[in-house]
Amino acid sequence: MKWWGRRRPRDRAREWEALFSPEALRRAWQVVRRKGATPGLDRMTIRQFERNLDKNLAQLRQELMGGTYEPLPVQRVLVPKPGGGLRPLAIWTLRDRVAQRVVHDHLVPILEPHFLDCSYGFRPGRSVADAVQAVIEARDAGRRWVVDADIEDCFGSLDRQRLVKQARAWIPEPVVVGLIEKWLRARVYNPARGQPATAAASQGGVITPLLANLYLHSFDVQVTKGVSYGTLVRFADDFVILCRRRWEAETALAAARQALGRLRLRLNPHKTRLVHFDQGFKFLGVFFLRSEHFYL
Questions:
Q1: What's the pTM value of the predicted model, to 2 decimals?
Q2: Are 227 and 252 a contacting pair, CB within 8 Å?
Q3: Under 8 Å between Cβ of 222 and 182
């Protein structure tokens, strides 16, 4: 059976035409070009890709439409984290970034209505400033005990099977789910010892933040329902839960740990703590102290 699943030829043709129209591919290319990109394994630069843009996009469309598309291996590089340590980053080729952007843009209006207001990262119309404002409003409402937390190796730890299962439940087109599976299974060209040999949902992919929000949606649901006395503010893998009393924050921390455990994720023990606004804490590049906040 082909990767697009059991679909009637006429249904598949309609899906392909809507998803991979020349206009959609060109819009995707414009976004990829504007954001800039390090060449992937094929060493194709933005300037080189654009020299034969029509041909390159037509070739990509033919592969996507014909079900023969296969992502090229990704290169993994280690980049320094602001707080110390190294973060693995996947470098995809331009053609694969364009393909991911097409699917990303198609999925945003499908997935966005499901996501909760507590999620702020990598969502249209939402920003760090909005998340900071949510923290300020909770503080001013008297919620001054804080669970200041970070999910350990979040992107690298997303369970592939669970993510695909969630995608199948929410995404109506098997062709799209098939592409997501291909990207998750894409081979890493230079895997380090002890590191996964497949790209999975590693950072660097155009579609990775959207998939992470999809995966973490159940965490948002469990925490907001189970900790009704607290305010959850999550930006990708960083989050805070703001409560009125210390015991509420302690209970919220336990609930967050349990919710992550169900997703096969865990809190970073070095970046997770209970703190009061009087002590101060940093979240999303902002330092909160008593009734003030300072951008770092």
A1: 0.89
A2: yes
A3: no
Buried b (16+ CB within 10 A) or exposed e, 26-59: eebbeebbeeebeebbeebebeebeeeeeebbee
Q: What is the pLDDT of residues 148-196, one digit of tens each?
A: 999 998 888 899 999 999 999 999 888 899 999 999 999 888 766 666 6
Cα–Cα distance, 169 to 177 (Å, whole number):
10
List, for residues 71-124, the tens digit of each pLDDT value: 999 988 877 776 666 777 889 999 999 999 999 999 999 999 999 999 999 999
Distance CA 50, CA 236 (A): 32
SS3 content of the chain, % helix, strand, coil (to 5): 50, 15, 35
For residue 216, which of 169, 154, 284 has the smallest C-alpha distance?
154
Tell me what the mean pLDDT of segment 209-216 comes to: 96
Distances 57 to 38, 48, 104, 152, 168 between C-alpha atoms, Å: 19, 13, 17, 38, 27
> Which of 146, 156, 32 lies closest to 88, judged by CA?
156
Burial class (CB in 10 A: 0-12, 13-18, 19+), 194: exposed
